[in-house]
Amino acid sequence: MEPDYICSRTYLNEANQLVEQAPGQTNRTLHNDNLALLTIAAGMALVHIATNGRYGFHRDELQTLSDALRMDWGFVAYPPFTPFVERVGMALFGHSLIGLRLFSVIAQAVVIFLAGFMARELGGGRLAQVTTALAVALAPLAMFEGTEFQYSTFDYLWWVLIAYFVIRLLKSGNPRWCVPIGIVIGLGLMTKYTMGFYVAGIVGGMVLTQARRFLASKWFWIGVTLAFLICLPNLIWQLRHDMISLHFLQSIHKRDVGQGRSEGFLRDQFRINTNLAAAPLWIAGLIFLFRNRRFRMLAWMYVIPLVIFAATKARFYYLGAAYPMLLAMGAVAGERWVSILRRGWRWTVEAALLAGIVICGIFFSAILIPWTSSGWLSEFALKNNGDLREEIGWEDLVRTVANIRDGLPANQRQNFGVVVGNYGEGGAITILGAEHQLPPAIQLTNSGWLRGYRVPPPDTVIVVG
After folding, report:
1. Contacts by 244-251 with C-beta closer than 8 Å and gap 24+?
2. 155-176 b/e with 16+ CB inside 10 Å = b?
3. Do the Cβ atoms of 149 and 64 come closer than 8 Å?
4. HEC-encoded secondary structure of 249-293
5. CA 188, CA 206: separation in Å to the nearest integer?
6. Residues 215 and 206 sit within 8 Å (Cβ to Cβ)
7. Most exposed among 91, 186, 194, 419, judged by the fewest C-beta atoms under 10 Å?
8. Helix 81-93 to helix 102-121 angle, to the nearest 10 degrees?
9. CA distance 366 to 293
10. Could you report the per-residue pLDDT of 327-365, keeping only the tens digit for each?
11. How far apart are CA 442 and CA 461, in angstroms?
12. CA 301/CA 316 separation, integer angstroms
């Protein structure tokens, strides 16, 4: 029997069951499903809110905040969306760690909720929805994205939101879904340029499957136009700056390959991008998507970026946001499989899978989430998590520079500057140094290099790094 026929028959049976149910019962079922997903998403959000103030800013966060003070349509290291969000954050919360990271927390909570929704749209019941949401919530990469504000956090959200819209497109056959897909692609290109590889997967998935019929729709081209218009200001900025971000990305890619940062790409798809215990789910999801003509496009949306990233020796986490859609399909297939087992076996399989996901999640949370700022748990996290170590010492650096400034003769303090060696130091002096009346740093890297010296230039400089 053809897989897509099975899928169609399943949807028909589910529709008939819904017709037979009383409206109140159907509403209660959906309400309870939503409540379960909301509980998981809100639970992870509360964990992040409670722990995100344990240490200090990450050096990448300091760079973003520094750029946010001088908003533009582009920056050397990234497009302008994340600095814009943090500019809003600073207006609302000042330099509060918990406040500024709240946007990332919200983004990841939405991702968890959407993951469960994808399972529902693919025909899954409450078990499939909860399993998907839990597997995404307790994936190491997803947990990390809620601990800091990084452009990768919002990029993760856009990938998942696009996958959800594509499911709605393929399930309904309504080409109007191309419009929100185009809008989110535009936002994604204004967030992180790796969105372009996902676009390759989307277009390739359309061409290689029956979804190619949408290419002839006016709604597809409206979506394309909207995506282009949204990212057009950044494209113009890049052209005016000689495509500087392209040269920057080529440079850091060469650096990453030289330093071995691209090694372990395939291994980390299992170990970090996803919860290790959930590997059978996303593998099954990929297989079942390929077997299903209706949703086969989603499989290509994963495989095409995977092949490109592996061939070009990209960093492992670039592909992380493609897994929720695979987990959703795998959970749906798993739910249908366990439903034919005897009750004892069904409960055993379900309990073993959920327990494995939770145990793996707890272990990696001890590494990624700053549960404490002292004691053995903190030592364990700092030993295994280089990003946490990047959050320590910036206040000390700023105080040291301020003390040096205070020790200068009065005539040298009148017009002095601080020259830094990297963007972490630059962000620390610019953002944290304001409380010590330090001037914005003179940076030699990334967008700081474009800004150069202030006018008039300083007579005396303190050199850091």
Report:
1. 244/76, 244/450, 245/74, 245/75, 245/76, 245/77, 245/78, 245/193, 248/76, 248/77, 248/446, 249/193
2. bbbbbbbbbbbbbbbbbeeebe
3. yes
4. HHHHHHHHHHCCCCCCHHHHHHHCCCCHHHHHHHHHHHHHHHHCC
5. 19
6. yes
7. 91
8. 120
9. 41
10. 999 999 999 999 998 888 999 999 999 999 999 999 999
11. 9
12. 16
CA distances from 258 to 253, 254, 255, 310 (A): 8, 6, 5, 16
Taking alpha carbons only, the member of 263, 250, 195 closest to residue 228 is 195
Secondary structure (3-state) at 443: strand
Q: How many of the other CB atoms lie within 10 Å of CB of 210?
A: 13
| CA distance to 38, 107, 120, 182, 221, per residue, from 85 (Å) | 24, 12, 31, 21, 29
Q: How many degrees, rounded to 5, is the angle at CA 252 between CA 247 and CA 255?
A: 130
Evaluate the CA torsion angle 113, 118, 119, 124 in order and state its sign.
Answer: positive
> Is this prediction's pTM over 0.90?
yes
Strand partners, 461: 417
